[in-house]
Amino acid sequence: MKLLFFCIGFLLVNCCFAQSSQPIPAYPLKIPTAEYFARNFAYANDSIAPVGNNGHFQYLNIHTNKAVFNKVFEEAYPFSRGHALVKYANKYGVIDRNGEYAVQPKFVHFSFYTGIGTNTTVGFDTIATPGLTNMVYFDFDEGRLVEEIGGHMYEPIAGDIFDYEQAGKYGLIFKDGSKTLPIYDSILVRTQYMVLLKKGGKIGAISSGKKTIAPFVFTEAVIEHWDGYSGSIAYALKKQRHWYYFDSGKGLFKNKHRPVSTHYKFSIVKIGKGLNYVDEHGKLLLRKPYKWLSELGYMGINEKDEIVLFDKQRRGYGYYTP
């Protein structure tokens, strides 16, 4: 059965770059694609990364700053499970860690797909004719060309809490059949195990076990990361000058930094005119604020407009200098 994949092009670019009111320059690479490969670079604790300037990239050992092979590319992405997507002579292909081609650079276009976890697949157009597409796929998990995107199907978990509407108000229905009166103004989001909602103009959260996760005292909410398969959700709620961060039914920490996006293991917060990551304990992870940060956690653009890769410890490595 086919695995559920998502194409991450236009939508992700607009979501991420919307973080900054400052102009973001054009780069000779696809930022959404780079974000996903940057995450794989960090997860693998890789010592090899592409480094570019003036539209040319070379793969360097990040500890010695020496080239690992002599080939130079027009576009290059971090390795994922031993292979990397590159562009040479205006055509896309795939190399291994020795710089040898696993897929010859003969494709004008590619489409990038991501699956569950760090699974990634690149589809190449074999017929570059408008309105006509014939795709071949390179699966980075398998390290080879495949005929179609395949894998296991994961079904969403059934819900334990539901809502109903009556006379413009909302009530909750629980798995045991019991229900509340329709006393809520609106439903902000409902997962399998909890619901975030408004009552009397204030925001609160209730679990499927009928417990109050967050009392109705909050005035703003940032709801960013919702996993429909596990039922988990990361969100932040504002009360007076503080933001309170939650992972589903668990309160994590509070601080005065306005969240830009929320995630289970980290969030992006506004620090002055810049951005920083905070971990699940509220600790700032970067030494200085950035102009833009990837919502996947491992890539940023600094005030010099340089693209930076981060490892798991959020140490930065130069990726591209304009």
From TrEMBL:
UniProt key word Ribonucleoprotein: no
Protein origin, superkingdom: Bacteria
Keywords noted in UniProt: Signal
Signal peptide limits: 1-18
Protein's name according to its UniProt entry: WG repeat-containing protein
